[in-house]
Task: structure prediction
Amino acid sequence: MPAEDHPLPSSWRGLGRTLRLGWTASPGLIAVAFATTIAAALPDVLIAAALALLADAVLSGEQVGVIFAAVLLGALAVMSWLLRLLSERANRRFADRTGVFMEAHVVRLQSGLPSLEHHERPSYVDRVQLVRDHADTLSKVYQELFQVVGAVLRLILTMALLMTVHPLLGLLGLFAVPTAAVSHWRGGAEHALEERLGHHERLARHFFLLGTNASPGRELRVARAGERVRRGRHQAWAARHRAMARARWTTTLWQTAALTVFGCAFTGSVAGVALNGGSAAEVVLLLTAGGRLAQYLGQTLSQVHFLRTIWLEGGRRLLWLEELASMAAERSPAPPPERMRSGIALDAVSFTYPGTDRRVLEDVTLHLPAGSVVAVVGENGAGKSTLVKLLAKMYEPDSGRILVDGVPLADMPADAWRERLSGAFQDFARFEYPLRLSIGVGDLAGAGEGGAVDRAVARAGAGALVDRLDRGLDTQLGSAWAGGAELSEGQWQKVALARGYMRDQPLLLLLDEPASALDAETEHLLFERYAERARALKDRGRVTLLVSHRFSTVRTADLVVVMDGARVIEQGTHAELMELGGRYAELYGIQDRAYRVEG
Ligand SMILES: Nc1ncnc2c1ncn2[C@@H]1O[C@H](COP(=O)(O)OP(=O)(O)OP(=O)(O)O)[C@@H](O)[C@H]1O
Result:
């Protein structure tokens, strides 16, 4: 579904959801944290009243009154301190627990999304990045919320105290309204800007990784482009910083103006009470409570600001991610077939990457017969890998359908379909685990079965690699780990290929340039062996789709599909396409001659 169809939920729904998550994470602790934070407000405010009592008793010379007021003052100070301490401890423990809970929740949601859109569509990437970055911070906002409630309670009680001096002093609260309004607007405005500037931040991070990782490091040194990358990073940060600083200056100016309005009203009130026959106790009460009014107001505002920026916005995005994940889970009721009979059909499939407007697949109609080995060839950018991604259900076509034995792939749950897929890709992952696990990851459910990993190793022709390692399949991979072995590019790719061969009975095996780092001869031998085996198992109905630029490998396939400019332009067996004398024959001829010359 396109991103525009799934807007951000409202702040209030996000807030409600975050609260419910906090309750789920730890109901007991959230209750204690809330109760102690709120209770701490009462003694705090009453200190102003006790001070007024004390001033009154001192001026009227009542000894008992002085002692009573002093004891009350002491008791209130101790209570206030104790409750603050308890609330801090309860909130900290609660934040620790929810932090872990939230992070796990976000990871689960993200990894559960069937499509890759959240990794590739710029507006989605920025949202997901905010949720990810704020997952831990979200756990701390409960304390902020409780403190906001406590600060609002303090404000109300303080105003009630002030109104005992003169009812008009309650109006002081009105002068606080502009400050609260500015603060509310400020948080939202800054946050929206932060999200809009997300691409600068990503760019800076990208340059940082380029400059600090080993493999780009080699290229950068040879090309002597290190300085350019450093400058790029600096410029990206500077662009973000300039825009943020401008916005912050503007919002701060507005806030200063609003606070000035409140300051003038407070000073006027103190002068008014003092000059119009107010008692010393009333002036003390006004000074203490009124002074605190400004402090409580400041606290409320900074917490509201924090809540507005982090919690409301973070909470909305978390809910958005949850909705995206559940929408994906709700669709698709049809299970994949146990065994494929007719095969996979693409019926007028067209596709445009989210956030772009150029079609990268145009009206593709193909039949991939059950039990066949299909090779896809074409120039760079022709759409071969995109076809593989659609078959792996990483994206849905814009129009047209993919049918598996006549059942729309769109109706099949992504998880269930992927359980029946195997794959090895050009941009393979390097799992720095012990080798056995690094391969076993290809099918964790079956990896424990005796011999499953050994079979995968044999299919990928990786036996020699295993033998060469000191501890065989138990060797830790990756030189960053104690005793870890570093592999060459081709060796890593063999591990990835073995991972792709882990499943015994996949319905579809996707091999997207799985041997690009191996020499042509090894690739040819490997694939020929694989194709023979696949043909022997024809009745299992598996489809194997291989993307390769090497025609020596491609020619062994049962069906060759030639892509050009987002379209399928030719299809048939090697012999048929050679006889046709079209694009395939031309490309084959070029490569064949080149090899002969090299040879
Ligand atoms: N994530 C993406 N977002 C936007 N456009 C993309 C994305 N991935 C690929 N493309 C574009 O889609 C087109 C087809 O890319 P694809 O990777 O499918 O080509 P390919 O035939 O596999 O190329 P190669 O042989 O170089 O691997 C290219 O023009 C590419 O720029």
Observations:
- The longest strand covers residues 359-369.
- The pocket of adenosine-5'-triphosphate is lined by residues 120, 353, 356, 360, 378, 380-386 (CB under 6 Å).
